[in-house]
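Q: Convert this sequence to structure tokens.
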Amino acid sequence: MSVVPGQKDKFTPELRILVASLLSMVVILLWLKYYGPKPPVQPPQANRPAHTGPANSGAAPATSSATTGPKSLAAPVAPASAAPVSVPRKSDSQERTITVENDLYHVEISNQGAVVTSWKLKKYADDTKPPQKCKDGSNPPCVLDVVHQEASQQTGWPFALILDNEELQNAANGARYQVSTPASTLNAPADVEFSWSDGHLEVTKRLHFDHSYVVRVETSVKLNGSPIKAGLGWLGGFGDLTVANPAPIETVTVYYSEGGRITNYPHKKLENIDKWPPGLWQGGKDFVGIEDRYFAAAFLPPNGAAPGTLETRYWKAWHSVQVNGQDTPEPVPDLAVSSSAIPAAVRVYVGPKDYDDLKKMNPPLHALVNFGWLEFVADPLFHGLKWLHNYIPNWGWSIVVLTLVLNMLLFPLRISGYKTTMKMQRVAPEIKAIQDRYKKYKINDPKKAEMNKEIMAIYSREGINPVGGCVPQLLQFPIWFGLYRALQGTIELRHAPWFGWIRDLSAKDPYYILPLLMGLSMYLVSKMTPMTATDPQQQAMMKVMPIGMAAMFMVIPYPSGLAVYILTSSVVGIVQQWYLNRTHPLPAPGKPARGKNGKKS
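A:
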């Protein structure tokens, strides 16, 4: 990178550009890692609407102050204004679990509340590192379960019923439903119906499973024979609980789409349930759901339904987790979906955020793969990688090939920057003479403007772009950031191995070998790149930048795939710079110009 030599105690204009670019890179990388200050820990609130869950492994479900346990549940009292209607009672005498499977998932549904107690995605393992024995006793890799067992026992389960009357809601979610099939295991395609009645409140849930990630759910609720509004909830959180950095709760958001735009709500922006009075729903939604970095649950309208027909509400509950041996409250994002149609029918997608598969859905869901504000860079990089992966089975080598292609495309700019370096070295003595004449003036003195005019006149005379030498490096920054977003947010790169110790290109190098090699190669490139003078500030900056980059990759868990790109790019840069130094040797520095007093400067 070309820098004009100047006073030893002042930054040259080109060096200021380099410093500003480096600082901008550091700020953006840190911002990408830390999304603002941590919220203060709030005391746990009453988890209303609370739900009694099914027994899990023989343990009774936890209850809150707003919850009545299933063992003590009596028939709910009908509202005084409701006319008594003779409705047959319907319930089951014992708890049952129905398992539904296809090639993609393993779903367990309890008739205690007719709620989902487990939703395992067969094609994906959890993020435990190093692999440990699974909760069910099997050997790793452990199949990912997106239902959070402990949080759900305290706050409620997926597919719980959401009613405006809390007493009726707790009764429906704590009751034992009759199941339409005596079988305990079903293979998709399959239909299963759960029904219950206490003589006043009637609830029916019908579920249809096929060979895709989408499940159709129809919910019907009647009170004294008359239909009432009901919602279907996803409670207890969502996603992979085994991620280490950041904490799982930091990656989970609820979202809705309205008018083609997705709005996300992390737990920091969610209110407690007391902010939602009975009967309050937000309508006009195309789809709603909850997601983490790589997986999503999306509630969609039935096929053929008009857009904007769904209604939603979202809040955060609280559950206790053990932190340093003490019970600590942790937020749990919850949401519910309903519609004006009775009975309420929705399609529920639970699966990976695969860009191409989500794009084929109706409505399209590919916007859930969020590349951030650098989407215009990350999106083509990702699809370029996917195209290469069609021919190169290994994602790591696909990144290497992509790096080679991009660096060859940028090579003409490197040549142009090198030529700029040659020109600037030729005029360096003349520039230094001008700077020496004005060195007695302060930086804010008007005379400094005259100095800059004289320097720019020389640049214009020689056809020099003062920042031309920085262009190749500056163009690498958006590529780095875009590839970072592509590696961090796409399911295809999750747990994708390269070779040897690199078993996950979306995670950091566990042994810090790639960052060390990356820093070393960047340092070699800087040493081989000619400078126009031995400016101590420039030399210090060139030494600090590789060290700083390597240190950031050790401290912050940046994807190792990004380190592969930077390392490969630096190795290519070494070869390209060797070629330029060999074929275009720099001219010897010219004699220093003379000042107005005739003395050498």
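Confidence is low (pLDDT under 50) at residues 1-10, 35-46, 56-82, 592-601.
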